[in-house]
Amino acid sequence: MRFKFRDVARCESGLALIEFVIVLPVLVLLVYGAYEVNRFININQKLESTTFQLADMITNNRSLTNADIDTFMRSAAVIMKPYETQGMQVIVTSIHQPTGGVPTTAWQRSLPAGLSTSQISSGVTGDPATVNYTLIDLDQLVAVEIYYPYETLLNISYVDPSRGRNREFIDDDELYKSAIARARFGALLNLL
């Protein structure tokens, strides 16, 4: 029996397996990427909804206590379900526009305390607050900020030749959302 190169070139017995092995990693990355992008968008939408709901619930009160604010902030974890809320921080700030002055912080609460810094206020009563709205004298706003530690489900990494180290395809990040609402039933200047 003579061995002929033409016979080997026509043999297709393992071709499908070889093609599958070549295409499989690309398909896995496409499925993972589509899932991760969808999850990222859903968490962002859920965070935005949570901040607006908290601001709305807080501004629908005539007066508030520290316990009320703590209850509202803890409710953020319930609103965020089914997503994990470990490491999430909620900051609520009351902002007042004194007559002829600049917007100032009336009070600020954070749960848990001290993880992230508010982008709206230093948290010190009487300090200026950064608000991108035009306020009228004696105006009262409540700002809700949420910091959420976003982590990818799979840590797929590659070697970055420009940095000489491993990098993740999708980096873990801290997501930030804020909502501002006007007090509806009078000033919420003091917590009772």
Describe the protein.
The protein has 192 residues and is an alpha+beta fold. The protein has one domain (5-182). The chain contains three helices and six strands. The strands form two sheets. The chain has a four-stranded antiparallel sheet with strand order 2-1-3-6, covered by helices on one side. Helix 2 (15-59) runs antiparallel to helix 3.
Rounded to an integer in angstroms, the radius of gyration calculated over CA atoms is 27 Å
Integer average pLDDT = 81
Helical content, roughly?
25-40%
Number of DSSP helical runs: 3
> How many separate structural domains?
1
Globular, elongated, flat, extended or rod-shaped: what is the shape? elongated
Say how many strands there are.
6
Helix and strand content put the structural class at alpha+beta
Kindly estimate the percentage of residues that lie in beta strands according to DSSP: 15-25%
First-last Cα distance? 99 Å
Placed side by side, the strands forming the largest sheet appear as 2-1-3-6
Biggest beta-sheet profile: 4 strands, antiparallel
Order of helices and strands: HHHEEEEEE
Uncertain runs: none
Give descriptors for this structure:
192 residues; alpha+beta; four-stranded antiparallel β-sheet; two-stranded antiparallel ribbon; 3 helices
Characterize this entry briefly:
The protein has 192 residues and is α+β, with helices and mostly antiparallel strands. The chain has helices at residues 5-10, 15-59, 66-79, and strands at residues 89-96, 104-111, 140-150, 157-160, 165-168, 173-182. The longest helix has 45 residues, at 15-59.
